[in-house]
Structures are given as C-alpha cells and as structure tokens.
Amino acid sequence: MPKRAGALRRVGRALLLTLAAAVLAALILVIALRWLNPPTSAFMLTARLSALAAGEHDYRTHYQWAALEEIAPQAALAVIAAEDQQFPFHAGFDFKSIREAVRHNARSRRMRGASTISQQVAKNLFLWSGRSYVRKALEAGLTLLIELTWPKERILEMYLNIAEFGRGIYGVQAAAQVFFHRDARHLRRADAALLAAVLPNPRRYHVEAPSRLVLAHRDWISQQMADLGGTAYLERIEPKETAHE
After folding, report:
1. Would you say 157 and 170 are in contact if contact means Cβ atoms under 8 Å apart?
2. Residue 3 pLDDT more than 70?
3. Of these four, 30, 120, 231, 243, which has the most CB atoms within 10 Å of its CB?
4. What are phi and psi of 159, to 5 degrees?
5. C-alpha angle 103-204-56 in degrees, rounded to nearest 5
6. Domain identity same for 77 and 172
7. In the beta sheet, which residues pair with residue 170?
8. Among residues 164, 181, 195, 156, which one has the least CA distance to residue 78?
9. What is the C-alpha separation between 103 and 97, in angstroms, rounded?
10. Separation of alpha carbons 83 and 81, rounded Å
11. DSSP label at 166?
C-alpha cells in the first residue's frame, strides 16, 4: 500500500510538472507573439494537412502579413461590427453575448456562437476547430493570456491577418489581393463588409460568388459600421496614454 501511494504521488508530481511546463511554454509563446508575426497558424496547418490527406495537390495557402496601419480602417471596423462590437471594452469574453447564445441554442437547432475576437485569435492561432470541452478550456486559458499580455491593437491586427476568408485564404491582405486585386490598405467599405460577411463560415459562404444571405449580411454589417460611428469607433481601442497625445 505505501508503495502504491508513493507511485501515485510520483505520478501526481509528474503531471503537475508537465502542466506547469505546458503553461510556461504557452506563456512564453504568447508573449513572444506580441511582437513577432507568426509564419503560420494552427488552422492553416490543419487545412494544409487535410488537403494533403485528401490528395488535393493543388491546394495553396495564401497568407501575407500586413501591419495594422497597412490595413484600411474600414476592414478593421467591419470585423468588429460583424464579430465583436464590444471588443474595445471586454477582457476577452462577452458574457452578455454568451448568455444570449445559451438561451438561443436551448430553443433552436441553429447554433449561435458568442466567441469574441480575442477567443477567435486564441483558437485560430493555437488550436483546432470543434466544440469539445477540452478545446474550449484551452481556448479560455489562452484568451486570458492574450488579453493580459497583448494590447487590443495587437489582438485586432492578429485577427485581421489570420482569419480565414476562403479556401486557403488567410488575412485581409491575401483576401484583398485574391478577391479585389488590390492591397488591404485600399479596401473600400463595401469590400470590407463583404469580407466580414463570410467570416462565420468561409467554407460555406463565398466572397467571389456571394449568396443572397451573404449580401444581406454584408448590408447589415455596413449599417452596423455606420451605427457604431464609422472608423472613429476604432479610437476606442487605442491605449489611454496615447489617446490624449
């Protein structure tokens, strides 16, 4: 019995050490990515591996990093209007939207998500798609780390660069070039709203051949952009110490 207890303690210590090492590694990686631009993301790698496994040898990843100041403010505003209008104010989680999604999902077969931009960055950059409790727990922990160590501008910049807008198309710079043959800095309001309209499911909704549903969502996003006060709304995410300069 004592031997068994000792073995259990050793296993417990090993698990704690493994967990501590994993947390430390995640913290170091998240802090590093505050300044370093990622060469890829978990979602990009997963999509490429899936394409290779399916024998899709023509699959290509379109991804080109663009700094936030190189992206049209309309594009930044569009994703906020579409995905997370409380982005400037929350600390990673929009609990009001979560409550509303839970109530909606309890009475409807059409599931509604409530992920913030911060949560989507954590998921797209580090994790995998799906609805498992393990993934959601990891997503929550990574979201907290990101919110604690990155300024809001960096979170938004990261999202704009790794969000998927079509098959193999990641980030607004790649999307702007593929769909509109211009750089992200030259995106117009309608273009930005259309890109944001496919974000809920870029494998199902298409920028190049938008359905009526996508066009209606585009128009709704455009109206939301106006209701938020236009690109002046982006000033709310600037650091307080520079907002008065």
Report:
1. no
2. no
3. 120
4. -60, -45
5. 135
6. yes
7. 63, 164
8. 195
9. 10
10. 6
11. E
For residue 90, the enclosing domain spans 33-243
Question: What whole-number distance in Å separates Cα of residue 51 and Cα of residue 54?
Answer: 5
3 and 106 both lie in a single domain: no
If DSSP codes are grouped into helix, strand and coil, which group holds residue 228?
A: coil
CA atoms of 120 and 154, how far apart (whole Å): 13
Judge whether residue 173 has pLDDT over 90. yes
What single letter denotes the amino acid at residue 2? P
Same-domain check for residues 24 and 73: no
Q: What is the mean pLDDT of residues 217-238?
A: 96
Same domain, yes or no, for 74 and 4? no
Model confidence at 219: pLDDT above 90: yes
Percentage of the residues of the chain whose pLDDT score is greater than 70: 89
Mean pLDDT, rounded, of the chain = 89
List alpha helices for the chain, DSSP H.
2-32, 42-53, 73-83, 95-107, 117-126, 133-149, 152-162, 172-175, 189-197, 212-227, 240-243
Q: Are residues 101 and 117 in the same domain?
A: yes
Same-domain status, 12 and 42 = no
Residue with tokens 């303690």: 9
Q: Given this model, what pLDDT does residue 110 score?
A: 56
pTM of the model: 0.89
Would you say how long the chain is, in residues?
245
